[in-house]
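User: Good morning. I'm curious how adenosine-5'-triphosphate would be positioned relative to this chain. Could you predict the structure with it bound?
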Amino acid sequence: METQEKKIILSGIQPTGTFTLGNYIGAVRNWNKLQEEFNCIYMIADMHAITVRQDPAKLRQNTVQAYALLLACGIDPEKSIAFIQSHNKCHAEINWVLSCSTQFGELSRMTQFKAKSEKHPDDINAGLFTYPVLMAGDILLYQSDLVPVGVDQKQHLELARNVAQRFNQRYGELFKVPEPYIPEVGAKVMSLQDPTAKMSKSDDNPNGCIYILDDKDTIIRKFKKAVTDSEAVVRYAEGKDGINNLMTIYSVVTGKSFEDIEKEFDGKGYGDFKLAVGEAVADHLEPVRSEFDRLMNDKAYLKECYTKGAEMAGRIAQKTVSKAYRKVGFVDFR
Ligand code: ATP
Ligand code: LTN
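Assistant: Good morning! Here's the predicted structure, ligand included:
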């Protein structure tokens, strides 16, 4: 009988702070579910993180913390490859080759570059500009079929597809052209303080953001303060960004449909609804928090896991780098 190869999934998250509920709902939660069906590769994107200025000691600490969070969210290092990007030098190597197949014009159109340069006007570095090439390399090195991300990363994925196709046309087939894998509900969780803006790890207003390690009281307090509207009816509708966002969050953590939620809160005020969302989120995240504490007390185990992950990732990626080097005409010396 013919056995079909499992598809390859790759995704990454930057160690720029504690994961938010947005990261969890839009990305990491789904990574967990994909582990049974696919060959999954997940990485902590520390090389991406330095496109914005970081304190070195803090970055080192955040990277180990992010790795522990990944495992606490259910990524099983026995089932998936979980590693830290800078531990695999192939990411830097493929980056140069792919840069030479990427156009200045296409990078100039990236909305994340525009947004981040506005946010950090004193440090618009070349890495921030070429960030999507690094990301294309992450994906193409592993011949990934699917890339589970939140909707904010769609444009970067399209660029990765274009770069892969351009390289393949120029030098002959090498890279698999990846597909995005974006959740239907929760693809973009919004800030609780400004429901027209994405909930982001590096948000300056901590009340807008639920961190997955926040304690129950903090979570409930932040939801109580969430910006809504003056209609006082829990229903999903255009113009009700704040309530739509809370309904999305509640739906994901409880599994209830929007219709069920509207029925559940029929005749009740926003106060009741916000409290219910806060409690449901806090209960949902509680096991993540306790597993994280346990893992952070076992640094030797974490190190063992990311070392093994880097070795496995390195072996796969090296094959792609060698092929790419040969294709572009570099002389083989081994
Ligand atoms: P930063 O604020 O440092 O740019 P971030 O919070 O946007 O970070 P990333 O590390 O860039 O997080 O993203 C990790 C994953 O989480 C990506 O797949 C991204 O699409 C997803 N993600 C980030 N924010 C949200 C959000 N608010 N809603 C849904 N998905 C999100
Ligand atoms: N740029 C991504 C994080 C990331 C990523 C990747 C996601 C780095 N490399 C590869 C998917 C595939 C972000 O979320 N900002």
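The chain has two domains: 8-187+299-328, 206-293. The radius of gyration is 21 Å.
Let me know if you'd like a different ligand tried.
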